[in-house]
Structure formats: structure tokens, C-alpha cells
Write a structure and sequence with these properties.
single chain, 115 residues, mainly alpha, two-stranded parallel ribbon, 4 helices
């Protein structure tokens, strides 16, 4: 807690991460919304839980992040870090994300000017 601060209000993962222990552990440390779909055939109660609005929104949020990560890996060099150490990794990721965001801003401005 001292290193990372308070827990996030939402944790999302895919079916491969699901265990009841993972869900309980996330809730135990203070995560308000745990969005990890059940692996296998869910019970009726679990199906209703996964159909709640906040669960579906969290699941879609995670799915959107997956696409963003894929673009960062393919276009901006996040598939392999050439910097050394934790500080180097932080710089590598930071510059990659900054570059990706600047590219998005530039594309938006160009499309707005064309319209």
C-alpha cells in the first residue's frame, strides 16, 4: 500500500484470471468493483451478477484497453524494452504512450480540418 497508494476502484481481467480466491483477495484489499468473468458455465446467480450494468461496462473497458495495448506494442515499440532497470522501463513506457497520444491528437486535428 505504501508503494502504490490506495487500491483502484475497479479491477478487470479476462476469464483466464478468474478464481474465487482472486475475487475475494481483490475485494479484501479494498477494490470496489471486481470485473473478472467466470471461467466455465456460470450459475444463474453468477450470470445475473455478470449482467449488471457496472460489470458489463467494466468488461468493455478492459476490452478497449486490450486493443490499445496491442497498438502500443506493434507501432510504438512496447513489445520489447531496450532500456535498463525500473526507471528505464518507466521512461520507455512513458515515451511510447506520449507518442501514441500525440499521434491520436494529430490524426483528430487533421480529420477535423478536412471536415
Amino acid at each position: 500500500m505504501a508503494q502504490f497508494g490506495p487500491p483502484p476502484w475497479l479491477v478487470a481481467g479476462d476469464r483466464g484470471v478468474y478464481t474465487s480466491v482472486n475475487e475475494r483477495q481483490a475485494e479484501h484489499v479494498g477494490v470496489k468493483r471486481v470485473v473478472i468473468p467466470y471461467a466455465g458455465k456460470p450459475s444463474q446467480q453468477r450470470r445475473q451478477h455478470e449482467r449488471t450494468r457496472w460489470f458489463r461496462r467494466g468488461f468493455r473497458f478492459r476490452a478497449g484497453i486490450e486493443g490499445r495495448i496491442s497498438v502500443l506494442r506493434r507501432r510504438f515499440g512496447l513489445d520489447r524494452c531496450l532500456a535498463h532497470g525500473e526507471a528505464g522501463l518507466g521512461r520507455w513506457v512513458g515515451w511510447s504512450i506520449l507518442t501514441a497520444n500525440l499521434r491520436q491528437i494529430a490524426q483528430a486535428r487533421v480529420s477535423r480540418q478536412a471536415a
